[in-house]
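Journal club side-thread
Mid-discussion, someone asked how the predicted structure for our own chain would compare to the paper's figures. Pasting it here so we can look after the session.
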Amino acid sequence: MNQPATYSSNHDDSHPLPASFRVAFFYWLKLGFLSFGGPAGQIAIMHHDLVEKKRWISEKRFLHALNYYMLLPGPEAQQLATYIGWMMHRTRGGIMAGGCQPGFLGWTYRARAADYGDYLCWLCRRLAQSNLGG
């Protein structure tokens, strides 16, 4: 009479859907520029997009990887993205997915800012003024 509740899924988690390198690249790039909510927000966005919506990775594998990367020091969202990119497209996918994340983009910006500091300061002030209407 008292049986445990069973939950069924609308899709098969054992067979993720493949994605081309180009499609994956633009997804990771979009996620890298969308740093809303910090790492926790990005992990939630990745879960929604990659597990539920696009089905590029199974729920079980996503959570297993997330648990593993939460134990390691460093940015969990970037490590998780690198792992998923590597799983999908091996070495070039991991480099691409990890390289499109905010941590990497921020360091690249800082390195370029050291070279072009005056120009970037001027550009940032212009952008801020245009956004603020001043």
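Post-session note: Residues 4-11 have pLDDT under 50 and may be disordered.
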